[in-house]
Amino acid sequence: MRFAFFLLIVFTGGTSSDKVCSYLDVLDHLNLTKDKDAFKATRPVLDYTHPTVVELDIILYSILAVSWNNERISWDPAQFCGISQIAIPRDALWKPDLFIYEMIQKDDSPVNPYMLVSSDGIVSSEEDMKVVSTCKMDVHKFPFDTQRCNISIGSAIHHADELRLLPSSNSSRATQFSREVLKTQGEWEFLQLSVSSANFTFNNREWEQLVYTFTMRRRPLLHVINFLLPILFFLILDLASYFIADHRGEKLGFKVTVLLAISVLLLILNDILPSMSNKTPLIATYCIVIFAMMLLSLLETITVTYLIEKDSAYQEKLQLRDDWEDQKEKVQTEDCTTEEKRQSCCSCICKVPAGRKQHELLPVAEEVNSSTQSGDSHVLLLILEELKKLQKTVHVHLNCRVQGRSSVLWAARINRAFFIFYITVVSLFLLLIFIEWHT
User: Distance between CA atoms of 51 and 404, rounded to whole angstroms?
Assistant: First the structure.
């Protein structure tokens, strides 16, 4: 037991001979615990003509990493037990005044309160940033569009001779890191992150900035299912309505219902379509052309219905005329029956009595024969007149029927021609617009 305790004393004594270091010793060596205001008041260079090189690294939906060299800070890690890096509060040292040109909303992300300082004077700062920026979007091919947005980072007061901005990672490495960190992409699919430097002159000074370009592609499946396909289905229904009978009112009502459904979808398009584009979006052209074709189809149906109703009116007029002619013929038949009865009575009165002589009755017989001949000619004239009237009536009836049937024939021709025109125009338009969407 004592032997173990002795060993313990010896072991403890051995460690007590080593030097014990702390982070505070490094801060005391750098005078950051006493006069730290001098380290954050001005740009950390020993010669004001030396530029401060600031390296930037941006990862999409992740961290903005910034590092620069502070010439006033350095120490030998061997004198401080091998401490080569310490974390200090962010307000203890100077930081570059970097800002994002396109940012339109204040960042409300939690701030990292510390920075890392290396023994060679390299200061590194990493912070999460939520960037709400402006972006010039081209929605001409919505929802099959690809957008490129820029994030430009520069200094507010330090020009290019004082502050140099360099990217820490190249475009391929930044793209790889962003794809690894990016967990959820939502409506957009991340494609590429490229970085480039740009200089511009303002107030006779040259300013430097780093431009990060994000390339993203929209995922179109949701918009295709919720918008494009329903409009295409309504177009197919409008084409199928040509097989509905024209003499009924269901076809006209069906087309009006389909047109109203397209109008509702156009109102939905107004809500989902971005209004920041110099060109007319193809999806708007797609909807307008289909709406115009359906409207033209509705007008064609109204025209065909009018022609068919015109034929029906002729048929009703012809039926009324036929009824009137039948009633007139019935009245004439009754008159002819009465005339025949009267003539038969007259012939009975003109018979020769048995007690008279032949020579006394001869003048009477001659009168009867002459009257009979005149009656026959009169009957023939009446028959001729009736035939002329009948011929005229038949001619009028035929003209009415031909005129009525011509309306139906014109309606059938218009319907057939417009159906062929409709299918041709719609097929060519859909082919062209889908080719334009995918080129």
Answer: 96
C-alpha angle 91-93-99 in degrees, rounded to nearest 5: 75
The DSSP code sequence of 300-346 is HHHHHHHHHHHHHHHHHHHHHHHHHHHHHHHHHHHHHHHHHHHHHHH
DSSP H stretches of helix in 243-281 = 250-272
Name the pairing type of β-strands 114-118 and 122-128. Answer: antiparallel
SS3 118: strand
Taking the chain (439 residues) in runs of 10, the rounded mean pLDDT of each run is: 33 49 82 74 84 82 78 89 90 88 82 90 87 84 90 89 88 83 76 89 87 91 90 92 77 88 84 71 90 92 83 61 59 53 44 46 47 63 72 57 64 88 94 90
Give the pair of three-digit tokens for residue 50: 């030396």
Q: State the sign of the Cα–Cα–Cα–Cα dihedral 324, 328, 329, 330.
A: positive
Q: 209 pairs with which residues across the strands?
A: 154, 198
The Cα 317–Cα 435 span in angstroms is: 55
